[in-house]
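Appendix B, record 7
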Amino acid sequence: MEDSIQEYIKAGKGYSEQKNYDLAIKQFNKALEGDCPNEEANFELGKAYYLRGMFLEAVAALEAAARINPDNIDSSILLAKSYQEQGKNECASEIFKRISSVGSVDDKARMQLFEFFRANKMYDLAIKECEKISNGKA
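Structure tokens (predicted):
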């Protein structure tokens, strides 16, 4: 069972790399059939939905991934960006603020936080992220 789940995930990633998100979504959904929650399949499904512009569906998949592993920074950032694409900036802001308080966030993620805070005129938080990057605390 676990082998077939991984095969579906691998196939889905391959389709995503080819930008064939519809087929990728089908593969990730196959990986999620049954009762076994899978963080990777939910994250990849959410990412494919996001890249396809299906933000409501992306939120559902990414929230499922976050329930499995709330500490996954990549899932949290993509979830926040999905909320942002729907115009739900308050939801996005709460997630970005939570991520910002985590010490082990890399520079790439900090730049996304900075861009979100700057775009939403949250300049004090944007400056803090910029300082964390320049001080090497990411």
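Remarks on this record: The mean pLDDT is 90. The helical segments are 2-17, 21-31, 39-52, 55-68, 73-85, 89-100, 107-119, 123-134.
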